[in-house]
Amino acid sequence: MSANSPPIARLFSFIGGSTGPWLVDSMQCVIGEPMSTASRLSIVAGPAAPLPGESWTLRGITSNERYVVREEKVALVSKQEGLSREASTRAALIPIRKNAAWWALPQDERREVFEAQSRHIAIGLKYLPAVARRLHHCRDLGPDEPFDFLTWFEYAPSDSAAFEELVQALRASPEWAYVDREVDIRLTRAEFQLKR
Amino acid sequence: MSANSPPIARLFSFIGGSTGPWLVDSMQCVIGEPMSTASRLSIVAGPAAPLPGESWTLRGITSNERYVVREEKVALVSKQEGLSREASTRAALIPIRKNAAWWALPQDERREVFEAQSRHIAIGLKYLPAVARRLHHCRDLGPDEPFDFLTWFEYAPSDSAAFEELVQALRASPEWAYVDREVDIRLTRAEFQLKR
Hints:
The structure is a homodimer.
Chain A: E1 11-17, E2 22-31, E3 40-45, E4 56-61, H1 70-79, E5 90-98, H2 100-104, H3 107-117, H4 120-126, E6 132-137, E7 149-155, H5 160-171, E8 179-189
Antiparallel strand pairs in A: 1-3, 1-4, 2-3, 2-8, 5-7, 5-8, 6-7
């Protein structure tokens, strides 16, 4: 990044309510406390002022990698595509929280569960470039965040079955034994709703 | 931690100004932009409302370990002592920021610089329990934080030379090539000022 590049947005607000370009198809509470329902979702860069008809706002910040090693980073970067592809009319927002036992583990043991046992990076890589994703961290935004991570996924309708496989593979992994709250929100870009 | 334990504070505000229990002995800008001067420092748990006579407020949050492996964690925990020891009448607050090149490195290469090349954990361990410390993360509090880390150190006057060695050893390490802003603030607990 040159000194003249515009700053890249890191903080994002996901606003659930009755307005926004993404239609909520379903909200499933996988484990822990449910979230209140919303029919639409907006995503804005930066902090968000309360909106009329808003149900909830979740905030997350993109950050440096916590587990990925060089070889994995090269593989991910070579296969991945960005968000906002024309064909990516389906999306998922999956907020999760991990328990105190996870956060008390030293770095080597978290990496061991994350990749050696759970193949988290390898599973994500298998579904690239079909399933684009952006990971947002919440845990260090402040002491009272409701989730630790928000992951935003985008894919084409024809990749819906592949996305389902990805989510099920992660949920079946040893890493997920540490997840104590998870909500799975599925969405469709609003202008494509009538064409489904 | 049992379900009935009070929540442990994670977010701390360091308030420089003209009031507070810590007297500022010196403020040295090591690299990058200096901070405005302050004669006293207060530390409060949680976010801080602006105080009269305040010069600046820095916020940081304690978090999970990013590099420490199990064997190192066991060694650290067995040797370290807590903050607020009666004899710890000297302190240092050292805010640092690392450059974009550091944050772009994958996890394995940051660990390699941090410990294999720089012995960051081993150096800290050598000065335990004399120099107690608490690391606060700032980078993921929001997109506009002035520093990435705030480290707070406490030690007895008789360990001042040892503390100086620790700081110099870290500054001479390969890791410090990635530090692009650092301010070194030294302090004395106010009630001990007259006894020096």
